[in-house]
């Protein structure tokens, strides 16, 4: 059983109708360690794709390739072809800082800035000059907070510190912050792992709403969550994508034994 | 699938049996070791605290007197003929006038008998030369007081001040019993009292003879061991004669004793006057006048003062002591807070020496240090922590910065001497150079503290900013640096406190000179507080010793304030994330 991963045929990659992001033969090395091996995935526009897989299989690593967050790790080396809307995001002339404005990110642990709630949301738009005056900024902040389903809860305390919110509220604040710059893609790395079921349900609801306007990629350890929120799923194992396809099909009828083992909870 | 298999197989060791004897013994051992550690820790804290308290108590005890001074409240006639004979009221005239005459006249008004040349000279030792300067400043500040007679506080000299402080310890006062008859005047006073009034004092003087006999006998024994020669023999004969004479004097319990400046001084206080005994018998004495008694005083009201330290062993003569004592008895001496300790520069006169110059010198020096250190230190820390590539070069740099923090401070002084003074030709003893040297000294501290503060900011904050499309630099300056600021400020303040207390490197660049003037600019010669302490601690006068301790108190006060500020800053800006 141990050698199962090595024996398998290459994962099946179906063609996606309108791919927003296409990855082809992406490899990532942390120094000597080969963390992502020949991963090819298409991520559809305006939808949710989830990455599942056992711990340490490279989900976060691959996610962080999409907004070039891995550039901040000196020993990390990314090769292969990664495109958003057909444009190579690793081409030399591209500024990763501008890319990150288009590809937002929500992290596993809520990480609001230790500033006011308002400032948390306003920071991104201010950075990119999205609002030309205070009124516009107020509108934008309210919009983002509303989209994140947080506005009603915090509208009277926008001046309070973002860190004074509860964990779930903080995570929604982070989502509001991410969408405030109106990115095209939102990457979420286990956004609910620090939250209770009610807060998780809220976030899932939110993801479902956001999918109309954003392309969302979510890493999760919860099969149920993946099944609930995503339309497509990729199963990672030891740095490879073993199986990738429509979520229902992956969960109902996995083609690969590793996938079946994983989603039935027999290992991982 | 091995993971699954592993969870099913039994654990390789059995669980702990907490009831077994071995487990109980282990528990007991743990309790014992915990109790032992607690006791040791407590003992360590107590020992440290005890030493600290001891040190502080000693410094405060020594230094407290320096914050107070004695002043004689004398009425001074501001004679226009002396101050401003031409009547121009020009500052230069007022400044060059001889105020010493006025001060002396005020004292002579108190002690009219002391108007001869010798007495006048001695009278000058009652008051400080600062009294004259104070008077001059008062007149220049308000020339309209010329011509008036007003009561002004005049600073006592250091010796007189010390006498006032030690009076209660120095003087034994015994109330006299029975009437005394005082006859004669000036240096020829004879005192007669009935019924052995001086018998006790005489007996005390006789017991002092025993010590002299012992000393002479010891000397004789030394000579005897030394062999024989003509001179030694002569000396021995002389000593033997001395001893015999002393023994005879000691034996004759009622024979009068002559008092010299090598014995304790005996002074009769009667009728507001003070008479110093030169020869004492059991019921009569010969004396000289220190302060003449009022005529017609009640002769039964008198007391005998004994100044235990012989006159030759103290700085204040019997006469000066008598004058100060009389002024004090007349209620003219006040003890007040010595503001001049904070407003004066250094001085050769201990009662005039203050720390103003050193304080300003320290402030200017620290200003230079701060202005250099904070921008350079913080910029270096940010660069090294956030932007520098991690390679051999930056590793070497880092190791060297850490090593630099451990370099003895005197080395920085030598560097300053070689580079700033010799190569750049900057002025000696100047706060500019002092500040440069101290900046070099504390730069590593600030860099290390700032880097630690930057590193302590959770990376998730920076990632959040980067994820929003902030550049690395924006993320650092918008988020990381503000969060690290309290830590950086704390490090800076602690570094500055370190610089404030630093002495050795400043000695090397000549900030150790005796400087009276208050420095006005960073290029003027100055000294700093710790160096001032170093300078004063070297001086023999008791008053300087207490000023040393007082300056230490001030320095400790500043250090305390700085460290408290660091703690408060840290508490105030402490954030949750
Ligand atoms: N900064 C790094 N330096 C070196 N190796 C790393 C680094 N980050 C991740 N790795 C390695 O890369 C591999 C993939 O890590 P990654 O964080 O992508 O896993 P993951 O699938 O997100 O796991 P989890 O579900 O536990 O978050 C792991 O083996 C990990 O040890
Ligand atoms: Mg992960």
Describe this structure in words.
The complex is a heterodimer of chains A (268) and B (577). Chain A is α/β, with parallel strands linked by helices and 268 residues long. Helix content of chain A is 36%, strand content 25%. In chain A, helix 4 (117-128) crosses helix 5 (134-147) and helix 7 (167-180) runs parallel beside helix 8 (197-210). The longest helix of chain A is centred in the middle third of the chain and has 14 residues, at 134-147. Chain A is globular, with a radius of gyration of 19 Å. The two termini of chain A are 13 Å apart. The relative contact order of chain A is 0.19. The longest helix of chain B has 43 residues, at 21-63. In chain B, a hairpin with a 2-residue loop joins strand 7 (265-270) and strand 8 (273-280). Chain B is built from 21 helices and eleven strands. Chain B starts with a helix and ends in a 5-residue tail after the last helix. Chain B folds into three domains: 68-164, no CATH class; 172-314, no CATH class; 351-573, Orthogonal Bundle (MetI-like fold). Adenosine-5'-triphosphate (ATP) binds at residues 30, 33, 35, 53, 55-61, 73 of chain A.
